[in-house]
Amino acid sequence: MDALVKKYAEPGLWLEKVPFPEVKEGEVLVKMRKTAICGTDVHIYNWDKWSQDTIPVPMTIGHEFVGEVVEVGEGVKDIKVGDIVSGEGHIVCGKCRNCLAGRRHLCKDTEGIGVNRTGIFAEYASIPVTNIWLCDPTIPEDVLSIFDPLGNAVHTALSFDLLGEDVLITGAGPIGIMAAAIAKQAGARYIVVTDVNDYRLELAKKMGATRVVNVAKQTIRSVMDELGMKEGFDVGLEMSGNAQAFNDMIDAMFHGGKIALLGIQGPETTVDWNKIVFNGLFLKGIYGREMFETWYKMTAMLQSGLDIAPVITHNFHYTEFEKGFEIMKSGQSGKVILNWK
Ligand code: NAD
Ligand code: ZN
Fold it and tell me: Which residues of this UniProt protein bind Zn(2+) 2 (predicted)?
């Protein structure tokens, strides 16, 4: 079968023939319909330092998907052939204190599909049933294929009460853009989204941002003044991984405000800690999605009117994956989908 493989320890990705997966006990075989390219996949494509330290070669990559179950392994009872499924890319140990307490997103031994073990950019993949999410088939497949990053956005945005609050989102990547739509649905008053990329800020507007700020041209403070915001944002969602963006956020917060950090900062990031101390800010790190409360919430939000369609900007057949990665690298895209039909 066909798969997109990190074949060599160098930049690039290769369309290869790989062996058909064996369906082990407790696994389900999924025939892929649509997969989506994540920023992580672009890191692996580019073969940056993190990828060199993390990714075994050769390996099929990819972790965002929707597909149809075509076979179930021994012991699988609740998922059946024909079901439309997506799945959690984090495989957890099931034995540590957090796993036993039902806080599986905090497992100390998490492994990533398409990162530490075989991924799903393939015609078929066999996945532990404990990671499978049974989809509502009335939700469009393009949307189902991005449940993983939508889940990052939902997990981060719903960390704090948003009803009537003013929300600052730094970073209008696909996840920041989706967070704007979620904040809107959750009843936020003002949703201000920052980036340095106008294409992406336009998408954020379509997804419900009250105002967008290109911080290369305008300050967050000037937009706060326009909106009549005197004391700062109640909630901050850091979704850029950029040090300047994080520091801008700290400066724009209401005293006692709450910040959820999803963006992955580099080692060079520095923060004026006394602003956190004296302004009484709360910081919460976010990893992955809550299993499976986040999946439940995103399904329910979509069923009750959340519309994230504008974030999906490109669709390619998997054989044209190079085009998909190029457009992701250009920054002139939201989510890019690869079609396996
Ligand atoms: P992305 O890289 O597509 O988006 C980041 C955006 O930040 C870009 O549009 C970029 O132009 C913008 N940006 C750069 N400098 C900025 C500045 N000074 N101010 C405001 N914005 C600025 O990323 P994504 O896929 O949307 O993911 C968002 C972040 O979350 C990334 O850092 C990613 O690595 C991280 N992430 C974390 C988890 C987790 O589990 N913690 C999971 C997925 C992604
Ligand atoms: Zn665990």
Answer: 93, 96, 99, 107
Average pLDDT over residues 110-133: 98
Q: Annotated binding site for Zn(2+): which residue ranges?
A: 38, 63-64, 93, 96, 99, 107
Q: Which residues are catalytic?
A: 40, 43
Ligand 1 centroid from CA 241, angstroms: 5
Residue nearest to atom 8 of ligand 1 (CA): 173
Contacts of 247 (CB under 8 A, 6+ apart): 271, 272
Q: What CATH number was assigned to the domain covering residues 2-151+290-339? A: 3.90.180.10
Rounded CA-CA distance 193/198 in Å is 11
Domain 160-285, CATH homologous superfamily name and number: NAD(P)-binding Rossmann-like Domain (3.40.50.720)
Index of the ligand 1 atom closest to the CA of residue 265: 32
From ligand 2's centre to the CA of 292, what distance in Å?
A: 15
Ligand 1 contact via 166 beta carbon (within 6 Å) = no
Total Cβ atoms within 10 A of residue 23: 18
Q: Give the number of whichever ligand sits closest to the CA of residue 218.
A: 1
Kindly tell me the number of DSSP H helices and DSSP E strands found in the chain: 12, 18
* Confidence band of 181 (pLDDT split at 50, 70, 90): very high
What average pLDDT does this structure show over 326-331?
98
**Residue 181 in tokens:** 């739509």
CA of 117 from ligand 2 middle (Å) equals 17
User: 39 in ligand 1 pocket by Cβ < 6 Å?
Assistant: yes
146 in contact with ligand 1, CB cutoff 6 A: no
Percent of the chain with pLDDT over 90: 100
Residue-level length of the chain: 341
Q: What does the pLDDT read at residue 43?
A: 97
Domain boundaries, the chain: 2-151+290-339, 160-285
- Structure confidence by residue, pLDDT tens digits, 286-316: 999 999 999 999 999 999 999 999 999 999 9
**Closest of 130, 122, 136 to residue 63, by C-alpha:** 122
pLDDT band at 96 (very low <50, low <70, confident <90, very high): very high
Q: Which atom of ligand 1 is nearest to the CA of 175?
A: 26
